[in-house]
Amino acid sequence: MIRPAAFGFNKETAGDNFFQQNTGVSNETLQLNALAEFDNMVHQLRNHAINVMVIDDTKEPAKPDAIFPNNWLSTSSAGIVSVFPMYAPNRRNEKRDDILKQLAKEFVVKEVQDWSEYEAEGRFLEGTGSMVMDHDNKMIFAAVSERTNLSVLEKYAATNGYQAIVFLATDKNGYPVYHTNVVMALGSGFCILCEEAIEEEWELIAVRQLLESTGHTIIPITREQMHSFAGNMLEVKNRKGENILILSQTAFDSLRKEQKKMLEAYAGLLPIAVPTIEQVEGGSVRCMMAEIFLQRK
C-alpha cells in the first residue's frame, strides 16, 4: 500500500472514470482526509493479522492517484513482477524503481516484465484494475475500456499462460466501466458480479458459465451497488489462515442482508470507511492494495 503525499482530484483520469466527483474541497484538506482514511485502513488490516507493506509516496512529482498501486504493479507466485502501461500521463510517475528494488530485496523476484512501451502507442492495461485474475484456473476476466486494451491483454495473458475472457461492461449512464475490478470481485468459491453491467447476453452467459464451471457461486450486485463500490473488494488470508473479505463501508452499507449472508459463508467481512478516496478519485479499498504473491527471502 502506498501512503499518499499529494492526494487530490485528478483531471487526467476524470475523463473516463465516472465514479470520480470534483468536490471543490482544497487539495490540502483532501490530502489530510485521505491520509486519515489510509492510516485507519492499515491499522484495521494489521489488527486483523493481515500483513501490510506500507511505502511512502514521494512528494515530487505530485501523484494524486499514488494510493492505487495495483494499477501499475502486480506480482505472481512464479516470482514475476509486472509493470503496466497507464492511461493517464501523470499516473506514469507512480512507477518507481525504488519500490521494485525493495520488493527484490525482501522477496524472490525471478523476472520483471515491463509493459510500459505500449503507452507510446496509446494502448493500456492497468494491472489488477483492468484484470480480475483467477490464478488457480489461469483465467483473466477483463472489461474492455480505454484502460484495458484487448491486444495488450492478450499478449500479457499468452506470455503468462492465462486465458483472457473479455466482455463489455457499462455503468448506469451507458459508458464503459473504466476498470474490471469495479464490476466484479473473485474470491475462493464465490464471485461478486454486476450482471446488469454486461448487456450482451451471450457475453454474460459465457462469463457465468466459466465462473460456475470453476466452482464459483455468483453473488449478483446491481448497477446501483456497483456505483457504491460493491464490486471493488479483495479477499485475503491473514496470518491465522482465515479468509477475510475487505470492502469499503460504502459497499457494505449498499449490500442487502442476504448478500452479506452469502459472502459470510466464504469469508469474514471487514468493512473500512474510505469516503474521501472513493468520492474524489473513484476507486475503493481493492484499488489501494497490490497483493504480494512473491516468496519471502
Explain this structure to me?
- With 297 residues, this protein is an alpha/beta fold.
- It has one domain (2-288): L-arginine/glycine Amidinotransferase, Chain A.
- It contains 11 helices and 14 strands.
- The protein has helices spanning 11-14, 27-47, 97-106, 127-130, 150-160, 180-183, 201-213, 223-226, 249-254, 257-264, 275-281, and strands at residues 2-3, 55-56, 73-75, 80-83, 111-114, 132-134, 139-143, 163-167, 184-186, 190-193, 217-220, 234-237, 243-248, 268-272.
- Strands 3-4-5 form a 3-stranded mixed β-sheet, with no helix packed on it. It has a 3-stranded mixed β-sheet with strand order 6-7-8, with helices on both faces. The chain has a 3-stranded mixed β-sheet with strand order 9-10-11, sandwiched between helices.
- Helix 2 (27-47) crosses helix 11.
- The radius of gyration is 18 Å and the shape is globular.
- It starts with a strand and ends in a 16-residue tail after the last helix.
- The model has no long low-confidence stretch (mean pLDDT 93).
Helix/strand layout:
Blueprint: E1 2-3, H1 11-14, H2 27-47, E2 55-56, E3 73-75, E4 80-83, H3 97-106, E5 111-114, H4 127-130, E6 132-134, E7 139-143, H5 150-160, E8 163-167, H6 180-183, E9 184-186, E10 190-193, H7 201-213, E11 217-220, H8 223-226, E12 234-237, E13 243-248, H9 249-254, H10 257-264, E14 268-272, H11 275-281
Parallel strand pairs: 1-2, 4-5, 7-8, 10-11, 13-14
Antiparallel strand pairs: 3-4, 6-7, 9-10, 12-13
